[in-house]
């Protein structure tokens, strides 16, 4: 089994382009074909850049194409930009293959659920449409060359090892580190954090009292099914020892679990519901459960580990999960009701075919975090006093609404029946993410949407694939602006960057009733990001946020609408006029707040092209 895990991690089959034939010069180089990296490459290519996207493994798509298929989000209204495009393409894929009214379209849930094979196909399609984007797989970063430009460190080139073991050096004007680990930024000498800050450093209630080196736990996201037509039995891992799992027997016999597979708790393997298309399930760690797939402490060598260390850690996690699964499915002392249920589940014959049905990437929830121009913390995802919205960031380049979520950073007690510590789950109001999380303090041509600048607690709100795609999209547009204007990335004109994002349908503030594609989207985003929507609505009443009837997600956050049909009052007209002047919008001929003018009327007038 360990050999198979090493094969999974070391596969170097050719992707969309061969690393061996790759260019030696590019306008923008993106390292890491994660969703963030793909979004960065798409945005830069849409701006006309020659982009080289390099992935160290054999498979693009990061965790979205490697098992994390039950997308983490709170509301559909929080989706925009590259991820919204991706999800719509997923839905279109299922509609074209199975029919618009098919169960597969229904189970894709507007395209946010996708089988890994479908996610991979959609990502490939998106990249193939960009003729100035080249993708190379199987090339791992080994070093970065830097120089000094006007007193700032400047990356000149990056060197990779190709599948045949030879070196490949690429020069570029702007570099984007979209890896989960921050490998490129670390090689470039950018300062970074690993571990947790103490509570006092940023005043975070979710942080520990004292700083430490603990990391959020990792686990594999298996894709499994009960459909006998595609079900295959999981393998017995090499080195399997029955005695490692015997303590589970006492817990089963005591009836401490309703089932082996279930949702959301009372089980050992969390099978997310609703299921994915074609009767497949994303299998995850059970939050606060008695038995965990995540293994805090056993991942500490990952962030700064070399290939061999990371292969060892991944093999340890895979063997632990498969060993537990094999025990539950096959050991004769497991009570029959549990053993038979467990045995009814298997891997999917048509997923991860190159790696025996096992996902090729470990779910790295947290590794390095850049120390950048702005550090995103718990407070940035919290509402202001007497304000329905979270703290205003006028330099926002992305939106999140998921919240701070940590599966634990340590473990107390026995492997089975103990408890994770450092675990928290907090649902805030939608929040803005400022540009400074992408930029180093010094290096002038590097952006990092993956290992974004944040505290441990803050990162636990940023580490979701829809948010990572938004950050990557912003990084791609910023790279273009920095290159064509010969600016350091730190001084990219924020208003122009936001204009690029808004044109591409990417939100910089949460607005529940003006979605991407609306003719009012750009002007509402512009005024709202400048502060025009703060203070318009009362704070939401206390109580649980309602769930949508047709999904596991929530309804739109209350009191986050622009309400364009509402009458425009004089104080708001005066406030918006001042904001418009600061943004360089036309203010001549704007309608008066006469009782008949609506908010939408005023904003549409302000959206007229400047003379």
Offer a few descriptive terms.
six-stranded mixed β-sheet; alpha/beta; seven-stranded mixed β-sheet; 611 residues; 16 helices; disordered N terminus
Describe the structure.
The structure is a single chain. By secondary structure, the protein is of the alpha/beta class. The chain is built from 16 helices and 19 strands. The strands form 5 sheets. Strands 1, 2, 3, 4, 5, 6 and 19 form a 7-stranded mixed β-sheet that branches. Strands 9-13-8-12-11-10 form a 6-stranded mixed β-sheet. Strands 7-14 form a two-stranded antiparallel ribbon. A hairpin with a 2-residue loop joins strand 4 (140-149) and strand 5 (152-161). Helix 14 packs across helix 15. The longest helix is centred in the middle third of the chain and has 24 residues, at 307-330. The N and C termini lie far apart (68 Å). The relative contact order is 0.15.
Detail the topology: elements first, then pairings.
Blueprint: H1 2-10, E1 25-31, H2 35-46, E2 51-55, H3 81-98, H4 103-107, H5 116-128, E3 133-137, E4 140-149, E5 152-161, E6 167-177, H6 183-187, E7 192-193, H7 199-202, E8 223-225, E9 231-232, H8 247-253, E10 261-262, E11 269-271, E12 280-284, H9 307-330, H10 336-343, E13 346-348, E14 369-370, E15 396-400, E16 405-412, E17 419-425, E18 431-434, E19 446-447, H11 456-462, H12 465-484, H13 494-503, H14 521-532, H15 570-583, H16 599-606
Parallel strand pairs: 1-2, 1-6, 2-3, 6-19, 10-11
Antiparallel strand pairs: 4-5, 5-6, 7-14, 8-12, 8-13, 9-13, 11-12, 15-18, 16-17
Helix pairs in contact: 1-9, 2-12, 3-5, 3-12, 9-10, 12-13, 13-14, 14-15
């Amino acid at each position: 089994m360990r050999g198979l895990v090493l094969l999974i991690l070391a596969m170097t089959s050719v992707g969309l382009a061969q690393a061996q034939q790759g260019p030696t010069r590019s306008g923008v180089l993106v390292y890491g074909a994660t969703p963030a990296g793909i979004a960065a490459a798409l945005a830069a290519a849409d701006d006309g850049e020659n982009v080289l996207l390099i992935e160290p493994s054999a498979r693009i798509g990061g965790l979205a194409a490697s098992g994390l298929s039950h997308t983490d989000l709170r509301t559909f209204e929080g989706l925009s930009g590259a991820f919204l495009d991706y999800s719509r393409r997923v839905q279109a894929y299922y509609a074209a293959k199975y029919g618009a009214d098919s169960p597969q379209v229904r189970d894709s849930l507007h395209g946010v659920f996708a089988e890994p094979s479908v996610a991979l196909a959609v990502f490939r399609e998106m990249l193939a449409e960009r003729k100035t984007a080249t993708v190379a797989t199987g090339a791992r970063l080994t070093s970065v060359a830097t120089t000094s430009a006007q007193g700032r460190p400047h990356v000149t080139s990056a060197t990779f090892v190709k599948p045949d073991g030879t070196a490949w050096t690429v020069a570029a004007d702007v570099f984007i580190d979209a890896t989960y680990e921050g490998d490129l930024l670390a090689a470039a000498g950018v300062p970074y954090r690993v571990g947790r800050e103490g509570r006092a450093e940023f005043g975070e209630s979710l942080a520990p009292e004292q700083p430490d080196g603990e990391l959020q736990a990792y686990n594999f996201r298996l894709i499994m099914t009960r459909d006998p037509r595609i079900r295959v039995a999981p393998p017995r891992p090499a080195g399997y020892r029955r005695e490692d799992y015997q303590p589970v027997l006492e817990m089963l016999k005591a009836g401490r679990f309703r089932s082996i597979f279930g949702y959301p708790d009372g089980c050992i393997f969390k099978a997310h519901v609703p299921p994915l298309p074609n009767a497949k399930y994303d299998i995850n760690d059970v939050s606060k459960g008695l038995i965990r797939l995540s293994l805090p402490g056993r991942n500490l060598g990952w962030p700064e580990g070399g290939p061999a260390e990371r292969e060892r850690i991944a093999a340890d996690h895979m063997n632990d999960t498969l060993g537990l699964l094999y025990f539950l499915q096959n050991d004769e002392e497991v009570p029959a009701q549990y053993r038979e249920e467990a045995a009814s589940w298997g891997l999917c014959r048509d997923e991860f075919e190159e790696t025996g049905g096992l996902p090729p990437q470990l779910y790295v929830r947290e590794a390095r975090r850049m120390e950048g121009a702005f550090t995103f913390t718990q407070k940035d995802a919290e509402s202001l006093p007497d304000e329905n919205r979270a703290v205003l960031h006028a330099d926002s380049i992305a939106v999140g609404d998921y919240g701070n979520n940590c599966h634990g950073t340590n473990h107390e007690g026995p492997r089975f029946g103990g408890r994770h510590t450092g675990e928290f789950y907090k649902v805030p109001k939608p929040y803005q993410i400022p540009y400074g999380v992408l930029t180093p303090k010094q290096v002038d041509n590097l952006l990092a949407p993956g290992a974004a600048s944040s505290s441990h607690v803050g990162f636990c709100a940023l580490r979701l694939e829809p948010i990572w795609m938004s950050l990557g999209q912003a990084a791609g547009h910023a790279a273009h602006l920095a290159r064509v204007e010969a600016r350091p990335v730190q001084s990219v004109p924020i208003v122009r960057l936001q204009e690029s994002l808004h044109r591409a349908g990417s939100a910089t503030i949460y607005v529940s009733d003006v979605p991407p594609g609306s003719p009012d989207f750009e002007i509402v985003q512009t005024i709202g990001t400048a502060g025009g929507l703060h203070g318009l609505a009362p704070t939401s009443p206390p109580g649980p946020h309602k769930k949508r009837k047709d999904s596991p997600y929530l309804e739109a956050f209350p009191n986050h609408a622009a309400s364009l049909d509402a009458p425009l009052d004089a104080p708001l007209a005066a406030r918006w006029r001042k904001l418009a002047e600061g943004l360089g919008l036309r203010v001549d001929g704007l309608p008066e707040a006469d009782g008949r003018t609506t908010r939408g009327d005023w904003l549409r007038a302000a959206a007229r092209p400047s003379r």
